[in-house]
Amino acid sequence: MKIVHTKGPVNVDELTEFLQRDLNRLFRERRQADIQIDIVRDEQDIKIVCPALYDSFLFNIQLVANDEIHIIKSEHYTDDVNVLTLEDIINNLLISYPGRDGIEYIGEES
Question: What is the CA radius of gyration of the chain?
Fold first, then answer.
């Protein structure tokens, strides 16, 4: 699990819309493949799924508190090239998230 600490609150609706707007475009550019990734909001969680290729979620993004985001990567697809590509894109998107000059720390849980 990756933990992102922010200096300010993150709105789950805004983050969902941000990911929906940019994630697929960046993924298609990077992988040069026409694979549809779905970003699904579930209360305070955002699930990244690709039901055409994978049986379960690829990433689950949880807004734990106003200043903390947990990014849980599915244990089933850790070495999959699509998942590794998505992980890099998600990391970069979170760093560039509008107003996220307040990102304080991104790191792995020990």
Answer: 13
Mean pLDDT to the nearest integer, 64-88: 87
* Distances in whole angstroms, Cα of residue 59 to Cα of each of 8, 84, 99, 101, 102: 23, 11, 23, 23, 23
**What is the pTM (predicted TM-score) of this model?**
0.84
* pLDDT (average), residues 62-87: 87
* Residue pointed to by tokens 């805004």: 14
Domains and CATH numbers, the chain: 2-108 (3.30.310)
Q: To the nearest 10°, report the CA torsion of 65, 93, 18, 84.
A: -90
